[in-house]
Design a protein that fits this description.
Layout lengths: L1 H12 L27 H4 L15 H14 L3 E2 L1 H8 L3 H13 L3 E5 L6 E5 L1
Helix pairs in contact: 3-4, 4-5
């Protein structure tokens, strides 16, 4: 597969047909080079590390506490939407968290009295 890829690059460059091994570092086209996404050894010394983006509540324990406090502040019950907005996490992940809280005996699944919507209530 490497040889096939190298032959494609040679054909695109119109270069010689000798078999040379090269190291390719894919940076998503951030550094200029003969091929998008590739750098040469002398370019590698000038590349600055990219800052990492912190995640919102990376610890599931923090999400659990956040959801429980939210329920406490809203009169004891919340919906999935309330928890998604508060934590910034995707709905499937929040549903799994709420179900685990129910399994642990901290919450229960109910229906809202007037709308019938699914809500989670503190025990």
């Amino acid at each position: 597969m490497v040889d096939e890829k190298n032959l494609k690059y040679i054909a695109l460059r119109g270069g010689n047909q000798t078999n040379t091994q090269t190291v390719v570092v894919n940076l998503g086209g951030q550094v200029g080079s003969p091929f998008p996404g590739q750098i040469t050894i002398h370019d590698a010394a000038t590349i600055q590390p990219q800052p990492t983006i912190p995640q919102l509540n990376p610890n599931p324990q923090n999400d659990m506490v956040t959801v429980l406090k939210l329920a406490q502040n809203q009169g004891g019950s919340i919906s999935v939407v309330d928890a998604v907005i508060e934590t910034g996490k995707p709905a499937p992940e929040i549903r799994a968290l709420l179900e685990s809280l129910c399994t642990d005996g901290l919450m229960e699944v109910c229906n809202h009295e007037s709308t019938g919507a699914v809500i989670y209530r503190l025990l």
